[in-house]
Design goal:
Its cofactor is Cu cation. By secondary structure, the chain is mostly beta strands. It contains six helices and 33 strands. The longest helix has 28 residues.
């Protein structure tokens, strides 16, 4: 055998090290370019969503409604933090469809976010699209819903995110967890309702019932058999995963004779606190612990779980009814012989309760779950949100059914009512062909400041446009969201796609930049994706723009989104491979 000298041996070793480094570099680069790959030990979860019509009867009224796989509400997605989720959506109805995975961060995978004409063109009849994303740094409850027009009235379902395998929960392990999904039922087709409202300029007809897991419950006509019943065992701990999938209504929720412990909101843990009532806006999720009563105490009654609206708008603009479900200890058939206990719910317009409940929400802010709130602000914004008017179309004597007979309802941020484009904003951004699609001149503050919660200005008309804000990668952003009383003070649940944000402050009246920042909570603010802007008040949020793409922000009251209370953020790529938007998938729908 030939002798290998030391120099040759060194060369071989160096070559081997270089090859190893090249392989390692290549592997790392592949991982950076494929963020949808699950982490080590994680799984890939595959689902197929067939969107099809299904006859469903509620309130003795049968209607063919859009469903996923014939189910109402739709199927739940169960996954773990770090898992990859792949969902093939097939459209078998006449309407265009997209699905939004509400609250999922979508790190660099904006093509899978779902809002029509923002991150994708819709899936047309007979076509399909595969949504492909990874759950990053989230655990708890989110949900999915349609993101075209008002189709989410029946197209929605839970997303259950379990912790990584082997990681304990930071609260008492429940015996069982149960999704509690709030919705709204319309006897008429919601698409016809919104079309009529846009034609007349007036407010849309309200829903005919609220539902819990798709069922109206015993307080509605013809619905005693359509009641959700939660059967519990005495003394056991239950985790209720509350999801507000209603179109247009914030809700109070309570369980008779039971205390709820809030432990998680919008898939982020919070410092646990006890409450008899939960306030939850459309777009929000809240996980609560409920301990069933001991046997002797439980046997003597049936307990109602009830929800009704928190309504700060004009009378007649919300469904003023109550939905009920049953918390059941006794075997079926014994219910009628037991006393029925009802919970006490706040008044419809109890703004003080709303403010107090929001103030109790604090993130864990501990080593395992730190609160990475931005302490400096690179990009400050002040957004005045609320309703406004626009002249009736046609000749000067045209009348419509808005605030006056010559105006129709609209909604805006900083007096800009957002016009939806006819091609996807993300595609225009990615290809560098934004001309004629959007302009990067969304105002950072109102061009004409006024007394936002005081006497409204004489001119209540708004402007229109497809205007966006462009942010550099990883900029620290602060947005103060100020309610306006132009057509009456009203709470607005604002939802931001692609990010969680920290709620650092809130208050009543007008925001004062010389006073209020000193009161901000930068230690343990709650982390959310949807926040209620207080009626006649303001809320301040902060986030890092660490997710390249185009991200929708809008009111999650669907009527306000329809009227234009929405805008978009364009976040540019960063310099590193892992800071850049992924290329679009090959099956991305075309407009």
């Amino acid at each position: 055998m030939k002798q290998v000298d030391q120099a040759q041996m060194n060369g071989i070793k160096m070559g081997a090290r270089c090859l190893a480094l090249l392989l390692l570099h290549g592997t790392l680069l592949l991982l950076l370019l494929l963020p949808q790959l699950p982490l080590a030990g994680a799984a890939t979860r595959y689902y197929t969503f067939n969107v099809k019509l299904q006859n469903v009867t509620r309130l003795c009224n049968t209607r063919a409604i859009p469903t996923v796989n014939g189910k109402f509400p739709g199927p739940k997605i169960v996954t773990r933090e770090g898992d990859r989720v792949v969902v093939k959506v097939v459209n078998n109805i006449k309407d265009n469809i997209t699905i939004h995975w509400h609250g999922v961060r979508q790190m660099r995978t904006g093509w899978s976010d779902g809002p029509a004409y923002v991150t994708q063109c819709p899936i047309q009849t007979g076509q399909s699209y595969v949504y492909n994303f990874t759950i990053n740094g989230q655990r708890g409850t989110l949900f999915w819903h349609a993101h075209v027009s008002w189709l989410r009235s029946t197209l929605y379902g839970p997303i259950i995110i379990l912790p990584k395998a082997g990681l304990p929960l930071p609260f008492t392990e429940p015996y069982k967890d149960v999704p509690i999904v709030f919705g709204e039922w319309f006897n008429a087709d919601p698409e016809a309702i919104v079309a009529q409202a846009l034609q007349t300029g007036g407010g849309p007809n309200v829903s005919d019932a609220y539902t819990i897991n798709g069922l109206p419950g015993p307080l509605y006509n013809c619905s005693s058999k359509d009641t959700f019943r939660l059967k519990v065992q005495p003394g056991k701990m239950y985790l209720l995963r509350l999801i507000n999938a209603a179109l247009n209504d914030e809700l109070f929720f309570s369980v008779a004779n039971h205390t709820l412990t809030v432990v998680d909101v919008d898939a982020s843990y919070v410092k646990p606190f006890d409450t008899d009532v939960v306030l939850i806006t459309p777009g929000q999720t809240t996980n609560v612990l409920l301990r069933a009563k001991p046997t002797a105490e439980a046997a003597g009654a049936t307990h109602l779980m009830m929800a009704r609206p928190y309504a700060t708008g004009r009378p007649g603009t919300y469904d003023n009814t109550t939905v009920a479900a049953v918390l059941e200890y006794a075997p079926p058939g014994h219910i009628k012989s037991l006393p029925l206990l009802r919970p006490s719910l706040p008044a419809l317009n109890d703004t003080a309760f709303a403010a107090g409940f929001a103030a109790k929400l604090r993130s864990l802010a501990c080593p395992d779950y730190p609160s990475n709130v931005p302490r400096r602000v690179d990009k400050p914004f002040f957004f005045a949100v609320g309703l406004g008017t626009t002249p009736c179309p046609g000749s000067n004597n045209q009348t419509c059914q808005g605030p006056t007979n010559t105006t129709k309802f609209t909604a805006s941020i900083n007096n800009v009512s957002f016009d939806m484009p006819t091609t996807a904003l993300l595609q225009a951004h990615y290809t560098g062909q934004s001309a004629g699609v959007y302009t990067a001149d969304f105002p950072a503050s109102p061009l004409e400041p006024f007394n936002y919660t005081g006497t409204p200005p004489n001119n209540t008309n708004v402007s229109n446009g497809t205007r966006v804000v462009v942010l550099p990668y990883n900029a620290s952003v602060e947005v103060v969201l100020q309610d306006t009383s132009i057509l009456g003070a009203e709470s607005h649940p604002l939802h931001l796609h692609g990010f969680d944000f920290f709620v650092v402050g809130q208050g009543t009246g007008n925001y004062d930049p010389s006073k209020h920042p000193a009161e901000f909570n930068l230690v343990d603010p709650v982390q959310r994706n949807t926040v209620g802007v207080p009626a006649g008040g303001w809320v301040a949020i902060r986030f890092f723009a660490d997710n390249p793409g185009v991200w929708f922000m809008h009111c999650h009251l669907e009527v306000h989104t329809t009227w234009g209370l929405k805008m978009a953020w364009v976040v540019n790529d960063g310099p590193l491979p892992e800071q850049k938007l992924m290329p679009p998938p090959s099956d991305l729908p075309m407009c």
